[in-house]
Specification:
single chain, about 650 residues, mainly beta, Maltoporin, Chain A, 22-stranded antiparallel barrel, 4-stranded mixed beta sheet, 7 helices, 40 strands
Amino acid sequence: MSLLRAFFLLLTISIASQGYAQKRSATDSLNNAGKMRPNDIIKENKQWNRASTDLFTYWMDSGLYGYYGAQPKILLDGIPVDINYFGWQNVNMLPLFIEDIKKSTSRFIPQVYENSLASAGLINFKTAAVDTGLSFKSSFYIGNESGDPGPFIFDSLKTTPNIDRWGPDGSFSVAYRKANWYAKGLFSFRNHQQTDLISNQRIHITASVLGTNQQYENYKIQTIARSGLFETGYSAENWNVKARALYGEDKNYLFLQAFGREIPTKNKYLQVALEGEYETGNWLFSNRYIGHDKRIGKRFPLHTYIFDWSQTSHTFSSSAKYRGANYSFKPGIIYERLRTEAPGIRQPYNDLATFFLDGRFTVSSFSDFTLHFNIDYDEDQAAESLRFGLPTSFVEEWKIIPELFYSEQLPLRQNSFPYWLSRGYTFADFLDISIDQPLESFNNKLTGVKLTNRFFISDNFSLELEQKVIHHDALNIPWQVVEENEFLDTQPGQFTATREGGTRFEFRAQITNSISGLLRQQFNLQLQNTISGTARYKQYYGQIPETKISYQLDITPVPNLGLSLLASYRSSTEWLEYQALEGVEYKLPSGIPIRPFSGTFHTKTPSFTNIVVSAQKWFWDRRINTQFSVQNLLNQEVRTHTLGAELFTKFNIKLGVTF
């Protein structure tokens, strides 16, 4: 009943609010000149909460489950890809050609979207259609951080680990279209250096300790991502079919929350997908098959640890959508056969089935009623989700969208490290992680209400207001009480996974203004707060910033020239898992051929203001594109994780060629 009262309170507040907004909902803006890597596209939507230790891979939160909960689903042209490795998402591991991404769409409420279950939200990257004839595109990117003086390229004989280079990154694509048929192929490589001294040396020493010689090895601290894609499709008048093969490989340093620091890993992902649609009369039938295989292995041959975690799945989905004069409905089914293999796992197979129904009914000339329901089965367990919406336009200048939702999530869908430990995975034993048994395994359960108001005065000016309350009846929170260890910085303490509960409130305001194709500016404000909850629940959500403010300005002063300014503020966060390190000084052990440095650990990441200025220029009938940007213009301490790398002032250059 408390949530219903909150719902009507939000409704009253919104009806009383004044403003103007666009008729259409906003999607992520892809206009600014600062996009250099795929992760930059996600930054365009300020609603996502993100944390990183290396500024290359990220924990993401849609406001539903926090950083350690289920991660949002990533889709490429409506087909899901699975790049979630125990919570870390590496979008840079995907063969995404940024210049081809025309739109990214985000969802922040549990639902089945494009025949894919996305119980923690989603991001869908939509690429441009292939041009008629033969086309070719290529790009090259490199960045240089100014805060760490040292050699621009890595040299293991030098006495400093500093590597100021981000990249180089490169992409190459070729495509061909004739009439209704097309084919395209893409290959990309991306390199990333750990420029931060603290994390750089933590990885150096950890990599040695996990090896056989127990001596310091001057490993090259570098993340290397390689990916490729081939896709072909055919479209007729009332049917289409598409096939895709995708490969990604990432030599990385996976920050394992249960371990409290990074582990050198080699991650692989392979996908084969086939989908088709057929339309007849008022019916649209959709069918899809996806096979994927992802693996986590050791990066260096000297290492004795056995990660050896792999997962293979075969997913079939089918749906039928009927459109009537005043209504539509779409029933469907998703079946998944999952095989997970790792040391100690005794039951590798899981069969999952999801039944879903989407409906939309016209209530009046200015109001619709929307319904979504799905039930998810994992053999002897089930999880239900239900959502109601009533989008209403009382007048042409105002649209209000109240929504009420309830969602459950199976333990298997959480795909968390403690879940696999409960299934027998023995990797924690090798790392000497002390487990507080039993690790709880249960359905996540939440109830929420959301109210969105969109007002508009013209196509050039908009205001969107959103209020959301989420109550977690049961939330699985993994927690590692990290201990201090000289030289290694951290060592794992007691690891737990417990059932917690609480209530969160979120307010968001977005103002957008544009003047033809000349100027576009957008202001975003997001406030997030824990209203009530258990002690662990409050500590957990201390990792999420309470205040985020941003202003973005995109200007096209003359044809073929774009200028962008992005100024953002983020409040401080607190990571109480690391409170044993608070005030501890760190330093390198003697005998290691690295220049001396020291500092002090703090559980809080400070608030920061980050200013990015960017420019892009096209030449030769837009066949050549050049981009330049400067990040962290104020050279403040920009850091999103208490053990994470800092971002100093950084220069980026990118060159693209299209034929």
